[in-house]
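PROTOCOL LOG
Step 1. Enter all chains and additional molecules of the complex.
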Amino acid sequence: MPYALRRTGQAALVLVATFVLAFLLLHALPGDAIVARYASPELGLTEAQLDELRAVYGTDQPVWVQLWQSAAGFLTGDLGTSLQSGAQVEALIAAALPSTLALASLGFTAAVLLAIGIAVAATSSRAEWLRRAFRSLPPLFVSIPVFWLGIVLLQVVSFRLGLIPVINANPVEALVLPVLTLAVPIAAPLAQVLIRSIDDTVAEPFVAVARARGAGPRWLLSKEVARNSLLPTLTIAGVLFGELVAGAVVTETVFARTGLGRLTQEAVATRDIPVLQAIVVISAVGFVAINLAVDLVAPVIDPRLRKAVRA
Amino acid sequence: MVRTPSPRRAALAGIVASALALTACSASEASGPAAGADGPVSGGTLTYLEHQAYTTLYPPSAGFYPNGALVNNLTARLLHQDPETLELEPWIATALPEVNDDATEYTFDIRTDVTYSDGTPLTAENVVANLDLFGLGDQDRALIVSEAINNYERGEVVDDDTVRFHFSAPAPGFPQAVSTINSGLLADASLELDSEGFGPGNAAQVIGAGPFVVESEELGTSIRLAAREDYAWAPPSAENQGRPHVDAVDIVIAPEDSVRIGSLVSGQAHIARQVEPQHEEQVAGAGLEIVAAQTNGVNNGLSFRFDHPLLEDIRVRQALIAGIDREEVVTSIFSEHYPLATSSLSQTALGYAEQPGAYEHDPERAAALLDEAGWEVGDDGIRVRDGERLHLVVNEALPQPRSRDVITLIAQQLREIGVELELYQGDQAAQTAAAADIEQVQIYHSMVGRADFDVIKSQYSIDNRDTLRNADESGEPIDAELEELLREVASAPSTDARTAAAAAVQAHLTEQAYVLPLFEEPQVYGLQPAVHGFETESVGRPSFAGVWLAG
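Step 2. Run joint prediction.
Step 3. Record the structure below.
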């Protein structure tokens, strides 16, 4: 139990550090949101007028005061208003989150299925050339930029073949290509780790014993090898969450989907600090929560870890 | 406006025409829905692809194109400006305004039969409330003053159908200002909104008297406009005097260029804004029409900040102009829709005066001028004087097309004459912050679109954008003559005097080698063949009221 407590405490610390660091970094950039929105020369506002606007938005306060106000707001659930549009940050997030969650969860599920398929084919195909071909898929997938893949899929499937529209698509149609785009780069490291750990597990003495006692390859894979290969894969899955977030930014922009990724891209472009701050915190919460879950679940799956932890 | 049917489409039309001539009898039977040429057809939903989501619908901030596309179709204005001739005509006003001799008082007679889409009538009180807000702004609500309205003092309700506006100094640009989208009239309820209220997510609250109303909005993704059935007050010159031909317009955000163009070409949308020059061939090649709407203002170009020690010497500025090959820039980066600039103003702008021979490419002359100014070529090919390198920084004009490519090419050209040009790196906020500081940015890349004489003042006056950084630390003009000429443009009461003043400004800019105009920047749209009657307002924002879909 102290292990779980310690990990939870660490996770909370990571969140606080992320919040503060993100805030300070965003404030250290040249120019601010008032400059981004109002100082563009076409509006012709004077420096004095800009300062008045800064006072209206409270961005004229010292950084530490703003940090404190922002932190207090977050603790009470008030994420502030977007400096670019004036919309409530909660409303922006609430509008964007479901779409991104649907994309990310489906993308991740597809990635897992794809990875398992590749790993099984790469380790138990009959023909040597086939195994080799499947083994070379993960390095290939990992080197494909999400951006490029998305555009190629669109060009071929939507624009040339006309199978799925991008504009005014129904919700299911709208998800097919983005999910595929997101799944490929996530599947790659998953498959790589899975193949590697299946290889390692197959070389273990207990597999040789099981085989000697007459276990067939399918039984071996599903009963013995799978469970033992799961742990490294689970660990990497936690890390891949970051990849999922980054992938969402590109995927949503390419496919003109609404979501946290698009929101991020727009907020970065306009230096919209309250929105960025909220996105950073949400991503950090997701990242920390998943890794915490992985760490807490790992000892349950693998009894060897329980001893290691206690020692 | 320039309309260019693609060669292939023209050829196709020719073939079709001759085929029709040959088989006239049999063709008549199968010519059911091909009514496109016969006249407008009602109905249908137009899908329009936009590059970015809108940021606000507060009219004075509608200059940003995604905002402008909405405000232009949602609101009516007192006057209407013909995008071709740039002449003003009545709209909500029943006639052009009466003006006093020194252009400080404007009196409009307004229509009394116009209603807003929430059912409230458009009254004299409401018009005054609108212009008061746009002319004075409201700091507490973070609502800015309209750039187009200068010297505004107050509005006055004379009687039920007459309004008068008072100015503290001559404001000859006011009639044009009330025709722009920055003066789109709003219902009383919408005038109460603050900056947040005009922001994304609240589009339905922004109520105008234009041909369309906001039907629904999906934050950051799309917005649907519905035709206003009872719209019956189009400007007199409009072909469509009634409700819009289409039932609705879907404005869909597609930020990625290749996706926007791909969806357009594959027929998933009818119109796309911002067809980049490198995509024009793809669009035209597929039989689509390209519409390049002129923006009628200050050309896309470079302003040399003459108060910086490196640019103080006119010979250095002349050398920069002679060292840059504008034709190479336009032919290698852009297309025929980006004509080479012939003055700081575009040819279709009010007050345009050609500057013949002012921007000729002559690297030898450039080198000679720099030699003369004491800049000697150093070891690495960059010129040096008193130990200082001839190193200049230019901003990246992010809203303008391919600014990075333009600057990169110009930097290569200037290297040939021993000048080092650096592109300032950073996002919009960083670019804006750096551009305000002459120490950080010495050459400013920009353009302004606005179809009035005032546009040249907007670009160069110390009260406005001051792209040349002509204001010294105390806010006084360094080149007082230039500032005086610019004020004359904005305040001379007669059109002739304004034309003369604008010509004097352009001549002064040429004489002093302050600017190098590059090209006339259009707004480029791609249109499916089914789209008819597409027009833009005077600075290239789309108008959907006359559009019909057929074929």
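Step 4. Note key features.
The CA atoms of residues 23 and 67 of chain A lie 7 Å apart.
The longest helix of chain A spans residues 217-254.
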